[in-house]
Design brief:
The complex is a heterodimer. Chain A folds into two domains: about 55 residues; about 110 residues, Ctag/Cox11 (Ctag/Cox11 (Pfam 04442)). Chain A is α+β, with helices and mostly antiparallel strands. Chain A contains one helix and nine strands, in the order αβββββββββ. By secondary structure, chain B is mainly alpha-helical. Chain B has a single domain, classed as Cytochrome C Oxidase, Chain A, CATH 1.20.210.10. In chain B, helix 13 packs antiparallel against helix 14. The chains are: A alpha+beta, B mainly alpha. At the A-B interface, helix 1 of A face helix 6, helix 7 and helix 8 of B.
């Protein structure tokens, strides 16, 4: 094969490869568009991105008057915290689903301002899951001026889904001093 | 490669050439009309260098605003535009053209070919670039300014931007076309134009990495073109691919974009791997350790790069199964990358090492790129990434890969091949100062950004809380030092071109590719018109 023939041969091979690679490029451009229906199918199959779907089925939010639950209130101040802390009522009878508000009273017995945080606990423990607090002094830290007395509300609903064998719930609050904060709530 | 017989330079008369002139045209028309791979490579490199400074000025403005908290110099809109343009210009205007420049210069000389396969197309591929860059810059002067979306051009922001967005979309189209044509040219050159006896497994590793990079480009760039075309039709022609108002989905854009975007990371990194794989053996005076495993590792990285895209978007609310798949696939890339790092170190092991400037850049690459790889592994883990997503930790990570990876690789290549290209030797002392100061200032800019990211500083925001001030001051001062250091390089480059000492044919003792062993220095305008015979 002479040089001219060889050059022609190389040139032909080059053009052939050019066309093939250009077709790949065009194909990949199309592939980008193919990804659009592909992703819609994937999302449908895996049930992601289902924006039109309702998150939860509607539930009966009516008060269940067929049951009565006794809620008992307890209160503690942790360790050396010089706060006198007590509920205004010791217990209350409620129906599941019924919005109820009770009050606690707290007195700072020291001549200095103190900040503390209340933490709730429940008996039986599983009742906590069904005890929905809508408003509570335990949502924020409380700062009491020297000698201050304060009444604080707890508003709650007992979820009607509370297991049938639970007839009474004990709600207990403990105040923990927030160390180092003093009165600078 | 010592058993190669030179059949070039055995005097042949001018009639052997298919064209009437032996040298280039003179003046400006030489550069406009040239089809010579060396001229085109030179133009790519000058263009990349210029854009490197343009993108660098943008980075400096960003760091200026971030020097102190509060808004001192830039309004937030303009800041966003700078962040966007800095990314686009550095990736598409600086790093990619720089490596295409290396490919143009080196691939024909390394495989014993007279030129690229499609010489005229090569000219066009280059001349598309200045127009694309002009469009990118012109966007600043449009009503509403340049897009402030970030370089990823995420919907829905892209649907809401002014006309500058359309300029950017067309710029991306043109850049993509240039890259695809350039890649087809490179693949064809490597597959069809090799000298007799230059089998695939004898190709220098730089050629291998570019072959695989070019395939990545041909496969990935059109997908980006598709994504921005969809954005364009969403903006003007009533389609709703990403426009949620018509049932489109912005997250869809992210999926399509990153299908391009992750291979793009390796499009940037692989040619730098190639340069490093030439430089380290040359200065270790040993053949590359594990040549075949290097080739397979590059191929493995390229294939894996197509199945990890969603690790850029762990936080969009994908199913846990998806997160797990992309997490495992991503960590898997550490294996072939680890093979490469191991082989580079093993090449140096018991070699007769010297540390001229190219080798310094290669060693800097090895340390810093590996560090960027490690932070990449950290980010690949879903629970950690959800904390670090869109923080400065990510910014630090990808600058270790882009700057200390790709850019250090490019500087290694410049210092390595400049003597062969120009026939003149650069100033070694200045080269070493350039390296050490760049290394120090680079870490000053970006190492502290890991701390900022872990402390929760979000990216792409011109203001920040007071507690981040110290690290940002250090980072901004580093950026200033980094920028000033690059003038050492410019000075060295210009004095070398003007009055550098003559370089030897085989300037580097350990270099063994055809350009060093078979060609005089400086490389003549036409080389290997008669292919060398390799035994």
């Amino acid at each position: 094969m002479n040089v001219a023939q060889h050059k022609l041969e190389v040139r032909r091979n080059n053009s052939r490869l050019f066309i093939r690679l250009a077709l790949v490029a065009v194909g990949m451009f199309g592939f980008g568009y193919l990804l659009v229906p592909f992703y819609y199918q994937i999302c449908a199959a895996w049930n992601v991105n289902a924006l039109g779907q309702v998150d939860e089925k509607p539930v009966n939010t009516q008060v269940d008057t067929s049951r009565t639950i006794t809620v008992e209130f307890d209160s503690n101040a942790h360790g050396q915290l010089p706060w006198r802390f007590k509920p205004l009522v010791n217990h209350i009878e409620v129906h599941p689903g019924q919005l109820t508000t009770v009050e606690y009273e707290v007195v700072n017995e020291r001549p200095v301002a103190i900040t503390a945080q209340a933490v709730a606990s429940y008996g039986p423990q599983l009742a906590g899951e069904y005890f929905k607090k809508i408003e509570c002094f335990c949502f924020t830290q409380q700062t009491l001026a020297p000698g201050e007395t304060r009444r604080m509300p707890v508003t709650f609903v007992v979820d009607p889904k509370l297991p049938k064998d639970v007839n009474s719930i004990a709600l207990s609050y403990t105040f923990f001093e927030v160390a180092g904060r003093g009165g600078k709530g | 490669m010592s058993a190669v017989v030179d059949t070039h330079d055995h005097g042949h008369d001018h009639d052997d050439h298919g064209h009437g002139h032996h040298g280039p045209y003179s003046g400006l028309m030489r550069w406009v009309t040239t089809t010579n791979h060396k001229d085109i490579g030179t133009m790519y490199l000058w263009f990349a260098g210029f854009m490197f400074f343009v993108g660098g000025v943008m980075a400096l403005l960003i760091r200026l605003e971030l020097f102190h908290p509060g808004l001192q110099f830039l309004n937030p809109d303009f800041y966003n535009q700078l962040v966007t343009s800095h990314g686009l210009i550095m990736i598409f205007g600086a790093i990619m053209p720089a490596f295409v420049g290396f490919a143009n210069w080196q691939i024909p000389m390394m495989i014993g070919a007279p030129d690229m396969a499609f010489a005229r197309l090569n000219n066009w591929s280059f001349w598309l670039l200045p127009f694309a860059a002009t469009l990118l810059i012109m966007a600043y002067f449009m009503p509403g300014g340049a897009p402030g979306t970030g370089w990823t051009l995420y919907s829905p922001l892209t649907v809401q931007q002014g006309i500058g967005m359309d300029f950017t979309i067309f710029a991306v189209h043109i850049l993509g076309m240039s890259s695809i044509l350039g890649s087809i040219n490179i693949i064809t050159t490597i597959l069809n134009m090799r000298a007799p006896g230059m089998t695939m497994m004898r190709l220098p590793l730089f050629v291998w990495t570019w072959l695989i990079t070019a395939y990545l480009l041909v496969a990935a760039m059109p997908v980006l073109a598709g994504a921005v075309t969809m954005t364009l039709t969403d903006r003007h022609f009533g389609t709703t691919f990403f426009n949620a108002a018509g049932g489109g989905d912005p997250v869809l854009y992210q999926h399509i974009f990153w299908f391009f975007g992750h291979p793009e990371v390796y499009i940037i990194a692989l040619p730098a791997f190639g340069v490093i794989s030439q430089v380290i053996p040359a200065f270790s005076r040993k053949p590359l350790f594990g040549y075949a495993s290097m080739v397979y590792a590059v191929a493995a990285i390229a294939i894996l790069s197509f199945i990890v895209w969603a690790h850029h978007m762990y936080t969009v609310g994908m199913p846990v199964t998806g997160q797990l798949f992309f997490m495992y696939a991503t960590t898997l890339i550490a294996v072939p990358t680890g093979v490469k790092v191991f082989n580079w170190v093993a090449t140096m092991w018991k070699g007769s090492l010297t540390f001229e400037t190219p080798m310094l850049w290669a060693c800097g690459f090895l340390f810093m790129f590996t560090l960027g790889g490690f932070t990449g592994l950290v980010l690949s883990l879903v629970p950690i990434d959800i904390q670090l997503h869109d923080t400065y930790y990510v910014v630090a990570h990808f600058h270790y890969v882009m700057v200390a990876g790709a850019m250090f690789g490019a500087f290694a290549g410049i210092y390595f091949w400049l003597p062969k290209w120009t026939g003149k030797m650069y100033n070694e002392t200045l080269g070493q100062w350039h390296f050490w100061l760049t290394l120090i200032f680079f870490n000053m800019i970006f190492f502290v950004q890991h701390f900022l990211g872990m402390a929760g500083m979000p990216r792409r925001i011109p203001d920040y809380p007071l507690m981040f001030q110290t690290w940002n001051e250090i980072s901004s001062l580093g950026a200033l030092g980094f920028a000033l250091t690059q003038f050492i390089f410019l000075y060295n480059l210009f004095t070398t071109l003007k009055s550098g000492a003559p370089a030897a044919q085989k300037q580097w003792e350990g270099a063994d590719s055809l350009d060093w062993t078979h060609l005089p220095t400086p490389a003549p305008y036409h080389t290997f018109e008669t292919p060398p015979v390799l035994k």
